[in-house]
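Quick one, T. Sequence first:
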Amino acid sequence: MEQATSRLTSALEVFENTIAQRRHADLTAEALEEQIQSLTASLGVEREKSQKLLVANDAVSERLDAIIDSVRTILEAR
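Structure tokens:
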């Protein structure tokens, strides 16, 4: 009877440990999934910012080119 109780206790401990490990793995997987979703959203926001900066850079470059042309025209006229 004692051996059976000991084996049952050992089996229950193994079962409990297995469940705990699986729960931990599930929680870890959920946390990683949340991090991936968060990073994906952040990446989208950063891409939008980058695109806006590129557009602004192009606009500034065009303005600078126009100013340089104006200055050249003024200098050539002198």
